[in-house]
Design a protein that fits this description.
two-stranded antiparallel ribbon, elongated, alpha+beta
């Protein structure tokens, strides 16, 4: 859909812009982006794989919750609980009510990140000289291709072709003499905090924000003697592979 040249404001026929009397694409509406942007979109989207993403059934901590014992992904194991489905060699798997863990995770996240500023990256357009040059060059190339295909062989058509081709060459000369001020991406604050954005998101949006901040929640059984994950160890034993010390007689 984004590759439709109608977004450049052209009148379309069978997937191609209709040419005006000067051999240029006929523009009948304001463009949403220029020719150079269209070419960039073609290059980007043609290489982009399709993703089969379905948020149906997504929960607040979907893919954000890990079991502290086996370090695999946790699940919603019952209608109202999070937990782990892995056998822990006789030890009880950690479980917790969904409403409790969701509240703990949300409170922690907002305390840690809620007052941070939200920034956005926006595109500021330039003066469009480069885009216009690219557009005229494409129009001239199309004229040349049509001529090579025999569309302008009659004397009248040949004279029209020479006139239009000459005019396009003159226009290109003038455009290339103008300074080009290209557009660019600008990083700027939106005036909102992370909490402001959080408060208007649904559960899927909040899950995506947790993923953007790389937040993961690890759950242990309350009786676990060692609580560890990559980079940290909690509890009486600092070595996660050690055998618990036996009490002295």
């Amino acid at each position: 859909m984004l590759l439709n040249k109608a977004y450049s404001g052209y009148q379309m026929f069978k997937g191609e812009p209709v040419l005006d009397g000067n051999g240029h694409p006929r523009r009948i509406a304001p463009e949403m982006w220029g020719y150079a942007d269209h070419v960039a979109l073609e290059a980007k989207l043609s290489a982009m794989p399709r993703e089969n993403w379905n948020p149906k059934g997504a929960q607040f901590l979907t893919d954000r919750f890990l079991c502290g014992h086996c370090h695999y992904r946790g699940y919603r194991i019952a209608k109202a609980s999070y937990g782990c489905r892995t056998d822990h060699e006789g030890h009880a798997a950690p479980t917790i009510l969904v409403v409790i863990l969701d509240e703990i995770a949300e409170d922690w996240f907002l305390v840690a990140y809620g007052q941070g500023d939200v920034w956005e990256t926006v595109f500021e357009p330039g003066n469009g000289v480069a885009a216009r040059i690219a557009e005229v060059e494409a129009s001239r190339a199309r004229l040349r291709s049509d001529r090579e295909a025999g569309l302008y062989d009659s004397p009248d058509d040949a004279e029209w072709f020479k006139s239009r081709y000459r005019d396009m060459g003159s226009e290109l000369t003038k455009l290339r003499a103008e300074p080009d001020r290209p557009g660019g991406l600008v990083h700027r604050p939106t005036g909102e905090t992370v909490e402001d954005v959080w408060n208007r998101l649904d559960v899927v949006g909040r899950n995506e924000m947790l993923a953007a901040f790389d937040i993961k929640v690890t759950l242990w059984n309350t009786k676990a003697p060692r609580r560890w994950f990559a980079g940290r160890v909690h509890g009486p034993e600092r070595d996660p592979n050690s055998v618990p010390k036996q009490p002295h007689a």
